Amino acid sequence: MEVDDEVQQETTENAPSNPNAHIIIERNANIISGGNVFYNPVQEFNRDLSISVLNVYFQRLVKERAEKALKQQQRKLKQHQTSENGGDQETKSATLPPSYAAGTKYDDGLRILEALAATGLRSIRYAQEIAGVRQIVANDLSRQAVESINTNVRHNAVEHLIEASHADAMTLMYTSTAPEKRFDAVDLDPYGCPNRFLDGAMQCLGDGGLLLVTATDMAVLAGNAPEACYVKYGSVPLRMKCCHEMALRILLHCIETHANRHGKYIEPLLSVSADFYVRIFVRVFSGQAQCKYSMSKQSWIYQCTGCETFTLQPLGTVRAKSAEQPHLVKFGIPTGPAVNTQCEHCNHRHHLGGPIWSAPIHNTEFVKDLLEAVQSSPLNELGTQRRIVGVLSMVQEELPEVPLYYTPDKLCCVLKLEIVPMLKMRSALLHAGYRVSYSHASKNSLKTDAPPAVLWDILRCWSKRHPVREDRKIPGTPLQAILAKTFSQDYEFDQLHVDANPSSRKKALSRFQENPTPHWGPGTRATIMIGDNKLPKSYRNQNKKQRHKAAQQTTPTDNDLPEQEGNGKSTQEDQQSTKKPKLAPTAS
Questions:
Q1: DSSP 169-194
Q2: What is the pTM of this model?
Q3: Which 8-state DSSP code applies to residue 546?
Q4: Neighbours of 373 (CB within 10 A)
Q5: Where are the alpha helices (DSSP H) in 299-451?
Q6: CA–CA dist 69, 357 (Å, integer)
Q7: Buried b / exposed e along 330-359 (16+ C-beta atoms within 10 A)
Q8: pLDDT digits (tens, 9 = 90+) for 398-420
């Protein structure tokens, strides 16, 4: 990841009431914060991406409103049978798009809720950088955080756009369900799991509103605690190489189920796995008829315990009643299971996980518009613009209708093979007539519409060039069962396919980032993640048991107390000084 160079800190000189206060500068926003309000500089990418999405979303919303107004005018023209010239003039005036500028209040602009605002940095940046804002409600449960929000709002002169709110986020959303109080966008960026806020968010969003959700409990979503994931998200994760995309799909499934309870459904615009979190942007629409399609968008997933091949089975089916009337559909329940008792490739049994969202996780048209917007002014001036362009370019290259992915290193590990180079593997699949792409969630991902049998057949062909030692072919192992079969055809590895190297890789775009700083991550609650305040709990607890044991072993006797009384402090300082350099940020 790019290090957030634009995020700076300066100790305020005229703040005697809070000597630990800092000024955090991110873009045009200046945040005055003490050490007890949460701030994480690594999340600048999250904030930049959210600003870009909200700008493009509002542009699409303005077009939808203009089209709706145009249809209404056309209906009125037909009813009143006005003259053709007058009708053309009114139609032209209705199609003129209004212009909006950032930092200005508009009565027809967006009403945005940041439910967990902390310092208010995100809300202030929204007010400064989103064109077409009516009101931003920056809410937090902490009184100290609300005081910080008010201070920062005045300091940045955005009082006309931001209203600070001191309330429980769920209570605020439940009391904003009246049509005149609903929001056009709700941003949920909690510490950990967002599930408890989803029900209120669904009810306070207007029809077609935008929901922005972050989840940082990746250990739970990635399969380390399936029982906890089921409690939080209503889904059972499996430990797979594609765990980051599975995390996105589990969260989408959770959001969709909350929406369906209120007669609503979601349309994912963009779903991103980045750093230590997943970030999802979905539009929420009302419609009981469309909710019936939700069952066919969810799937169970079977994973072989031996070769880790996975198979998806939808919860429901949708088919047209007749070819003459394709718009008339019939909903059904599929027969199952989609796999045999034992894996067809290695004869092992399966784990069952899910349900997960198996429909597309991005809107390709929206991603195209977003990529164009980020490369033009003013969004091209964002601090993490280069990374946003790289991630969106990869998202645009993904196969939208292919859920999850494999990794060549894991497939070769099952067969104890020399790892197939990525471009050779992609070329073999493309020459065989299948489609293939990367996933933005993993640099070693292999997303393809080829069935698993073809993947294993390609590796059998590869094993002829790089044979496996005979002593590794132990009976009963996946290796022995898969390599016992002969490959059905020769696959082309040497001739590089023209599409094997994707455009984002050829252009050397910033696709996968290195860790930005030491101790990057979700951070500690109510702590600014900069300077000496960064992870004080980690400093306190590092080698805690060893230090406690050493202290017990060197406990002074009563006779030694007077002699060592003056040296205790210096000894403790020496111990801490030897520990701290391990945690100090490295110079870049």
A1: HHHHHHTT-SGGG-EEEEEE--SS--
A2: 0.84
A3: H
A4: 18
A5: 364-374, 385-397, 408-414, 422-431
A6: 35
A7: eeeeeeeeebeeebebbbbebbebbbbbbb
A8: 999 999 999 999 999 999 999 99
